[in-house]
Amino acid sequence: MPALGADMESGTLLEWYVKAGDRVKRGDIVALVDTNKAEIEVEIFDEGVIDELLVAEGARVPVGTVLATIRPLAERNGAPVETPAAVGASRTAEVPAAKTAPPMPEAARKPPRAPMPFVWSPPRLPATKVATLPQDGNRLRVSPVARRAAELLGVDLATVPGSGPDGAITKIDVERVAAATAGKHPGATPPAPPIAAAPGPARQAAMRKAIAALMERSKREIPHYYLELQIDMSTALAWLHEQNLRRPVAQRLLSSALLLSVVARAVARMPELNGFWVDGAFQPGDAVHLGVAISLRGGGLIAPAVQDADHKTLDELMAAVRDLVARTRAGRLRSSEMSAPTITVTNLGDRGVDLVHGVIYAPQVALVGFGAVRERPWAAEGMLGVRPIVTATLAADHRASDGHTGARFLTIIEQLLQRPEEL
Amino acid sequence: MTEQQLRGMVLRALTEVAPDIDPTTIDPDADLVEQLDIDSMDFLNIIVAINEQTAIEIPERDYPKLSSLTDAIAYLAAAQTRQAARR
Predict the structure, then answer these.
(1) In whole angstroms, how far apart are CA A205 and each of A202, A221, B18, B70?
(2) CA angle, A357 then A361 then A363, to 5°
(3) What residues in chain B have their Cβ under 8 A from chain A's Cβ atoms?
(4) With 50 as the cut, is the pLDDT of residue A346 above it?
(5) Which one of A85, A113, A157, A172 is most buried, counting C-beta atoms within 10 A?
(6) Which of A45-49, A273-277, A315-319 has the lowest mean pLDDT?
């Protein structure tokens, strides 16, 4: 069970997309996991053949539990294949598990032929502690695939007897009912309206608890320092509006994407702010994976990451964030997006506040905040004028960096925003 | 599209972009962004979904004219008429 976010302690395996004997390659989505905050598609970082699925659908297991084993593909060109466990585990290990994670267990260094766990189990969290999730009183247990099938086929889920674990409704159950109904009424019922994916009260409570634990840890352990800078957005916004006039709706840019792009580029030049504080030392991130705080309407928030954000063009970043927001709303995030952020941005501008003094997502070492872009009186070159102004803030971990570094970082952001055409 | 169809299409766009909102609770005359807690990225996704359904290109400066459900339907109906006249 990968750590999908620093605040995750356990997860429920909702559905396997693979079975023993299936060939998988890096980036394949192999399972769907419920973290209490969202349903996350788990990707794989190895190549090989699924040897065995160790966790049943519907089971709730602690982070670090081995979900399945993968047999590496046979040697290629006579050279032994890299041990895949190292690949699969290191990605999730970097982030929150790092603190509790032991060095790579001996088992993972075995000869490549042996089946490898793609997520290994730290000894502190025994894999044997497998508990099934108790049946939720009023919420049907339905696999997402079954839910989609029900929407498509116009089947009322309340009428479907579940045959999965704990009576969970599977896709086959839905299809069985749909087939039976279609037989009786050739006209078939019109598709039901999409089911609102509003999180239930149980999930909301769990999410609140997860956020509470993470924020508590952050404020207890991280000596935050805060800086703020007001930035003139006239050049950036004029450029953006001009661009958008010429663009079809689907390719339009938002100022929030511009700000994210600028942060990614600025932090690439200030690596002291990009990474993690682990075991008393700073561990730089391997790339800029930009966490984007997305608030959920039911309450709570999720901060998935845009991978390699500093190497994306503004258009690519905009498309990535638009997709990320849409999938967050629909509860379709992927594991690599949840475990990887090296720095996080929160933009509360849409909510109308002027600035945000953020709380860092431990073990990250910096959080960048933006408030609303507002027209303000602004003095420049001896003249007073009205300009659109945004307040950028930085909350940073004083163990990992000093105010001087943070100040340079914010001024780089300001400079980049004066040259939007270079993004 | 009739007004009724436009309404259905806008509601579908809303629930597609934000499956976590309940379309039955929408006050047609209240500001959509405020009552549904929509952010700018959601709003753009809604505009894109409407564009895919109707081929109406809504320029950025017209976004404020789609602030409520009633306003949005009126705007789209007018845009449709203009589009038809041009053909």
Answers:
(1) 5, 24, 21, 36
(2) 135
(3) 15-23, 36-37, 39-42, 44-45, 47-48, 51-52, 57-60
(4) yes
(5) A85
(6) A45-49
Cβ contacts below 8 Å, chain A against chain B, sum to 68
Domain boundaries, chain A: 10-132, 223-422
Distance of CA B42 to the CA centre of its chain: 12
- Give residues with Cβ within 8 angstroms of B68, minimum separation 6: B28, B29, B30, B31, B32
A250 to chain B, closest Cα gap in Å? 5
The proportion of chain A whose per-residue pLDDT surpasses 90, expressed as a percent, equals 42
Per the structure, the count of domains in chain B is 1
pLDDT band at A167 (very low <50, low <70, confident <90, very high): low
Quote the ipTM score. Answer: 0.84
Residue among B18, B66, B50, B62 nearest A325 (CA): B18
Strand partners, A23: A49
Cβ contact A329–B60 (<8 Å): no
Rounded to an integer, the average pLDDT of A266-270 is 96
Compare B71 and A203 and report the one with higher pLDDT.
Answer: B71
Which residues form the domain of B72? 3-86
In angstroms, the separation between the Cα of residue B38 and the nearest Cα of chain A is 8
- Maximum distance among all alpha carbons in chain A? 81
Contact (CB<8Å) A194/B16: yes
**Residue A144 confidence (pLDDT):** 67
Torsion angle (degrees, nearest 10) of CA A46, A289, A303, A356: 170
- Topology, domain A10-132: OB fold (Dihydrolipoamide Acetyltransferase, E2P) (2.40.50)
From the list A192, A209, A187, the residue with the least C-alpha distance to A150 is A192
Q: Which residue of B has its CA nearest to A240?
A: B60
Q: What is the pTM of this model?
A: 0.68
Locus of tokens 């501008």: A349
Which of A50-54, A78-82, A404-408 has the least mean pLDDT? Answer: A78-82
Strands, E assignment, A17-95: 23-24, 29-34, 39-43, 48-53, 59-62, 68-72
When CB atoms are compared, the residue of B36, B41, B51 closest to A325 is B41
The pair of structure tokens assigned to A305 is 């990451």
What's the pLDDT tens digit per position in A190-220?
Answer: 333 333 344 567 777 888 888 899 999 999 9
Supply the CATH number for residue B49's domain. Answer: 1.10.1200.10
pLDDT band at residue B16 under the 50/70/90 scheme:
confident
The average pLDDT across A290-310 equals 89
CATH number (3.30.1330.100, 3.30.559.10, 2.60.40.3080, 3.40.50.300) of A223-422 reads 3.30.559.10
Least confident of A100-109, A268-277, A296-305, A372-381: A100-109
- Give the closest residue to A387 by CA, choosing from A396, A395, A378, A379: A378
